[in-house]
Amino acid sequence: AQSVTQLDSQVPVFEEAPVELRCNYSSSVSVYLFWYVQYPNQGLQLLLKYLSGSTLVKGINGFEAEFNKSQTSFHLRKPSVHISDTAEYFCAVSDRIGGGADGLTFGKGTHLIIQP
Amino acid sequence: DAGVTQSPTHLIKTRGQQVTLRCSPKSGHDTVSWYQQALGQGPQFIFQYYEEEERQRGNFPDRFSGHQFPNYSSELNVNALLLGDSALYLCASSSQGPGELFFGEGSRLTVL
């Protein structure tokens, strides 16, 4: 069984400031890791994913995340945020045993609030 | 190219009733997954369909059932609705393997 903990339910940040959204996971097997974004009244959109290789992953809209196996973390970062980044962000995992074709386990989400 | 489409977008039911939600996957995708997202929570995996069979199931009761058709579209059925079934139901499609899930905008179900 897997679980995902997003440590902050809400993160307020000033426009053009850097931001980090924290994600820790627990799993008895190796995992694939994902970050999704959900804008109001919309479905989820993939920001980035870690499957293998380099632990620093770059995604869309200037976001990046770093996989840290020893700390079981996959924190999301952006060096300079914009008003349009206001949204709900979800961290998710799936286990490798099923080839990654299994259902995702999501965290509860972090609401990123950009202040002008 | 249309993405994942879901219908209806909103619906209201009363306790004990049954509901059917529909999903058309993104073109080229053969796998459909369903998720339940309660207000203020992350999505929870209900089940996944591949080749018209339920491939994997999350921790949901048998009141939740589904179907996948030969054209890869899918339905989610919920029987004997409870107030706690009120949520946004998300459909996601993908190809096999650890690729990207493409989500629809969801069907918001309210149970009164």
Describe this structure in words.
The complex is a heterodimer of chains A (116) and B (112). By secondary structure, chain A is mainly beta. Chain A has one domain: Immunoglobulins (Immunoglobulin-like), CATH 2.60.40.10. Helix content of chain A is 0%, strand content 53%. Chain A is built from no helices and twelve strands. Chain A has strands spanning 2-5, 10-14, 19-21, 24-27, 31-38, 44-50, 56-58, 64-68, 73-78, 87-95, 105-106, 110-115. In chain A, strands 2, 5, 6, 10, 11 and 12 form a six-stranded mixed beta sheet that branches. In chain A, a hairpin with a 5-residue loop joins strand 7 (56-58) and strand 8 (64-68). Chain B has 112 residues and is mainly β. Chain B has a single domain, classed as Immunoglobulins (Immunoglobulin-like), CATH 2.60.40.10. Chain B has no helices and eleven strands. Chain B is globular and about 40 Å long. The chains are: A mainly beta (116), B mainly beta (112).
Write the layout of secondary structure elements.
The complex is a heterodimer of chains A (116) and B (112).
Chain A: E1 2-5, E2 10-14, E3 19-21, E4 24-27, E5 31-38, E6 44-50, E7 56-58, E8 64-68, E9 73-78, E10 87-95, E11 105-106, E12 110-115
Parallel strand pairs in A: 2-12
Antiparallel strand pairs in A: 1-4, 3-9, 5-6, 5-10, 7-8, 8-9, 10-11, 10-12
Chain B: E1 5-7, E2 10-13, E3 19-24, E4 31-37, E5 44-50, E6 53-57, E7 64-68, E8 74-78, E9 87-94, E10 102-103, E11 107-111
Parallel strand pairs in B: 2-11
Antiparallel strand pairs in B: 1-3, 3-8, 4-5, 4-9, 5-6, 7-8, 9-10, 9-11
